[in-house]
Amino acid sequence: xxxxxxxxxxxxxxxxxxxxxxxxxxxxxxxxxxxxxxxxxxxxxxxxxxxxxxxxxxxxxxxxxxxxxxxxxxxxxxxxxxxxxxxxxxxxxxxxxxxxxxxxxxxxxxxxxxxxxxxxxxxxxxxxxxxxxxxxxxxxxxxxxxxxxxxxxxxxxxxxxxxxxxxxxxxxxxxxxxxxxxxxxxxxxxxxxxxxxxxxxxxxxxxxxxxxxxxxxxxxxxxxxxxxxxxxxxxxxxxxxxxxxxxxxxxxxxxxxxxxxxxx
Length: 264
Description:
The protein is an alpha/beta fold. The chain contains 11 helices and 10 strands. Helix content is 47%, strand content 16%.
């Protein structure tokens, strides 16, 4: 994984795309390294994952235009599939994934952030889908996830105009959850990941699956998905101990303790 680093801090995993000389642009080799890093995440031990870019200028500036410029139709489709398969793998990881967007998130970079559950960014972040200005469409899920995230009308406007937007505008339209000074972005990402990791992992995973699966179907089917995942949490250590601790707090606050959830 020459262009991607993976490390853990307790129950939090951190993937860093490390190609700063090219503003962390995604070529085939970077995509392969990213997939290897995602595959290396032990989701039994890691309860939340952060994806970020190396340096302070760029999260991911986009797919590598130099590589794309000579692709044939079939090669272009294959390149799109490669990116889509990896981003879908990120999207369907059982654990929550946070994009810490530290600068440019254009084209494939914006699409990578959209495959994550939560996006936070630095004040110097810039988002956009500039593909139509290059004679192509977004190819790594941008036409699908952007509309699901910020609404159809706004997504069409950003994609059709190829306009880039700054962090404050990304926050205003709901593309990101929070904006932080660049120097504190990773601390805030780790803090958020640690809060998530401290909660019952079975429940957190079930919530992610319920939301993601439910969004793909009608409401009647979606609430059945929720009912089944709700039921699946019962009889687990996390559920019995979590509820027992709540009742201890209600009966005698002095008996409350910090629950060490076990993912079982």
